[in-house]
Specification:
- The chain has 338 residues and is an alpha/beta fold.
- The relative contact order is 0.15.
- Strands 3, 4, 5, 6, 7, 14 and 15 form a seven-stranded mixed β-sheet that branches. It has a six-stranded parallel β-sheet with strand order 10-9-8-11-12-13, with helices on both faces. Strands 1-2 form a two-stranded antiparallel ribbon.
- Helix content is 26%, strand content 26%.
- The longest helix has 14 residues, at 131-144.
Length: 338
């Protein structure tokens, strides 16, 4: 069995996460038992939710255990199998974590899934045609549920979730407005992803400026908002929300370092009868097949053209992860391992 390299969570962050929170180790790969599969990872996924799991605090998921491999999505190839369903050479997506190899129980529900790379590149199964894409689909379809012609807004618009949200919303006839960091990302949202407008939060860095920019970009108000960030962005959206607006609350990256995120005008939720619903996509596995089918079709037809930021080598995963939390990535953040 091959030697494995792994990145562990060595200690918990105090405030901002740092490279020193992680530890790179080399280990033996255990021999396969009956029903197990050995996977060589090609890419691992870096996602904002991982920052929340580094804290030992109450959340929707158990904290990442200290001294164990960082949890996360992976795509790769079956190297060896003692399970009838998986053969060497199969391309698979799973939750292998921050390591070169994983030994997976082939019978465990949802732990390993074969994928077709004929029309969809393998790496996309960690982004547009994976968990982030399904996240966008669920928030749009099941919570916001827009009618054609309605205006929807998404923060972190050029990331893996935001870019999928834009394509899905345009396919439903919506006016789609993004919020992203920097003119290059905003130009990509409009010119490549097909957004109707995109607001640079770095140029509109307070509530008043963002509210004015939203007023200009959303002349008919805001009917739906997909929230990845929180903070003053949510305050600004609420100021421009129409009656009976819907907010799909997916992430609060502005508060991941422990800072409180008070709402300035919570009365607007009542005044406009706004529905705000938080959700965790892994609790809605029943929609994944339908969502993945639509997302794969959008990619194959060229209506969803996701960008990727790719760091090279397992040892560079912590630095890439911290950069993603600061918005340094452009599109889905991955680490290439092979």
């Amino acid at each position: 069995m091959p030697r494995n390299q792994q990145i562990l969570l060595d200690n918990r962050p105090e405030g901002e996460a740092a490279v020193s929170n992680f530890k790179l180790v080399e280990t033996e790969t255990p021999a396969l038992q009956e029903g197990q599969v050995l996977v060589r990872h090609h890419y691992l996924s870096l996602d904002p939710y991982m920052r929340g799991r580094m804290n030992d605090s109450k959340s929707y998921a158990a904290p990442q255990p200290l001294g164990e491999v960082m949890l996360g999505g992976t795509v790769g190839e079956v190297v060896e199998s003692r399970h009838a369903k998986f053969q060497p050479g199969d391309k698979v997506v799973g939750m292998g974590g921050w390591q070169l190899y994983s030994v997976v129980d082939g019978n465990a529900p949802g732990m390993l899934r074969k994928v077709d790379t004929t029309h969809v590149p393998l790496s996309y199964y960690l982004g547009a045609v994976g968990m982030p894409g399904v996240t966008a689909w669920y928030g749009l379809v099941k919570i916001i549920n827009p009618k054609p012609g309605e205006t929807v807004v998404v923060s972190a618009a050029t990331g893996a979730v935001g870019s999928a949200f834009g394509a899905l919303a345009k396919a439903r006839g919506c006016r789609v407005v993004g919020i992203a960091g920097g003119p290059e990302k905003c130009a990509y949202a409009v010119n490549e992803l097909g957004f109707d407008a995109c607001i640079d939060y770095r140029a509109h860095s307070d509530l008043k400026a963002m509210s004015q920019a939203l007023k200009q970009a959303c002349p008919n108000g805001i009917d739906g908002y997909f929230e990845n960030v929180g903070g003053y962005l949510l305050d600004a959206v609420l100021l421009r929300a129409n009656a009976f607006a819907r907010v799909a609350l997916c992430g609060m990256i502005a508060g991941y370092d422990g800072a409180p995120l008070p709402l300035q005008n919570p009365a607007l939720i009542l005044i406009n009868r706004v529905k705000i619903e938080g959700f965790i996509v892994s609790e809605h596995m029943e929609v994944w097949p339908q969502a993945l089918q639509e997302l794969a079709t959008l990619v194959a037809q060229g209506q969803l053209r996701p960008r990727e930021s790719i760091a090279q080598g397992l040892e560079n995963a912590p630095e890439a992860f911290l950069g993603m939390l600061k918005g340094k990535n452009f599109g889905k953040q991955l680490v290439q391992l092979i």
